[in-house]
Structures are given as C-alpha cells and as structure tokens.
Amino acid sequence: MKIVILAGGFGTRISEESHLKPKPMIEIGGMPILWHIMKEYAWYGFNEFVICAGYKQHVIKEWFSDYFLHTSDITFDFTNGNKMIIHNKHAEPLKATIVDTGLDTMTGGRVKRIKDYIGNEPFMLTYGDAVGDINIPELLAYHQAHGKIGTVSVYNFGQNKGVLDIAANGKVNAFREKSDLDGDLINIGFMVFNPEIFDYIEGDSIVFEQEPLNTLVQEGQLIAYTHKGFWQCMDTLREKQQLEKIWESGKAPWKIWD
C-alpha cells in the first residue's frame, strides 16, 4: 500500500525557514521532518511513497537525488580521470515518487493529481509537517474493518493550562487541572482512503478537508480513529524548536525505529 504525503504548501507560519525550503524539508535532528514521517511508516513495512510537492519542489527532488552522497563516505579522485568512489554506501529501503502538483494547488487538488500513481487501490495519506507514534497496522486494520471510504486519525490536543468552570454571570464555579476531556478532537493526518475518494475531488481549487471530507461525512462514509499517544505538528518555529528539544533528549516518542 502506498503512502501519499502532502508536501506542497508555502509554510508561511514558519517563514523563518520556509523561505529557503519547503516545510517538510525543515530539519529535526539534522534530517527533514519528511524523513522522520517516512521512517515511521517504513518501520511497519510500508515503504512506497508518493510525495505531493509544489512550493520549491526541486529542493525535495535534489535531497532524494543526493541522499546516498549525504550518508556515505566519498572519495573524489581528480588524479585518475575524475572518479568518484562511494564507500560504505548507505540508503534507506524507501521508494519515493515526487510529483510536482503545482504551486497554488489546494490539498484536494494535489491528491487528485497523483491518482495515476495510486491506481485503483486503497492508500494512506498524511501531512508532511507532523510526527507521532501512530500504530499504523492498527489504523489500517480499523479502516478495513469498518468498510467505509475513509478513515481519519484524530487527537485530543487538550488544554495546557488550568481549566475554569465559569457561570453565565461570570462567577467562577471551579478551578481544576486539565484532563483528557478538555479540548477538541482534531484531524492529525495519518488517514486511509479507498480509491473512490478521487471521485469526490473536482480539481485544483478543492480543499481536501472541506468539500471531499464534508461530503463523506454527510454520506456516512468517514470514520475517526482516535490516537491517544504522542503527536505534534510543526506549524511554527516554536514548535520546531520543541520537536528539536525532544529529539535531542534521546526520547522522541515518534522514533519507533531502531
């Protein structure tokens, strides 16, 4: 089963770095967050990816093109015919198809554009700017069991401060610490879809999270898989720094691979 990764947006909320590269190529621990996402799927045996590129898509292509050079020892021999010798060549067991899905294409349009690379089979879909310790086989089994067109992973981001119970007149009835019941469930990516989803996307201007998913909801064809472990997006520089700090601690929850 292929994994589609949305990696074509402008990343304006983290412009400190995204003015130079696509947001999925911003590094955590010296490697793009895109690599971290792919490593999680690959750990579970899913290693064929279709990457929906757009903004500065050449950066993604060039990184994959030079990947084995970045991870191997190289001898450049200009004394004997300008040779390059690769020592201890190292490459991940990954297959990535990078597709230029357009500069201004919306998320739904990007998914529609890679239809030919998926074919008539189910596929997984996620965002190229968030990591988590999602149990991919469990998610996939859940999707296959309910028989609907789509499954989205949801997560209770909760509150990070004390919670106040306030009456209509402003009186504070109670003050307590946050709990798992506080906050809203949000779509965190790590989705699974049957190929019928392509029929719900008209073209480049379609936002995937709006018309297609809302139509599935109306038809009773979208099911939520609740993730209760770790998840964190990288929308801002502050969140990037948080992920970097977690990685440097040596206890990154999303690092499930050896």
From TrEMBL:
EC top class, as a word: transferase
Keyword Transferase assigned: yes
Presence of keyword Transferase: yes
CDD domains reported in the protein's UniProt record: G1P_cytidylyltransferase
Key words of the record: Nucleotidyltransferase, Transferase
GO-annotated biological processes: O antigen biosynthetic process
PANTHER family: GLUCOSE-1-PHOSPHATE CYTIDYLYLTRANSFERASE, GLUCOSE-1-PHOSPHATE CYTIDYLYLTRANSFERASE-RELATED
Protein name in UniProt: Glucose-1-phosphate cytidylyltransferase
Organism: Sporomusa ovata
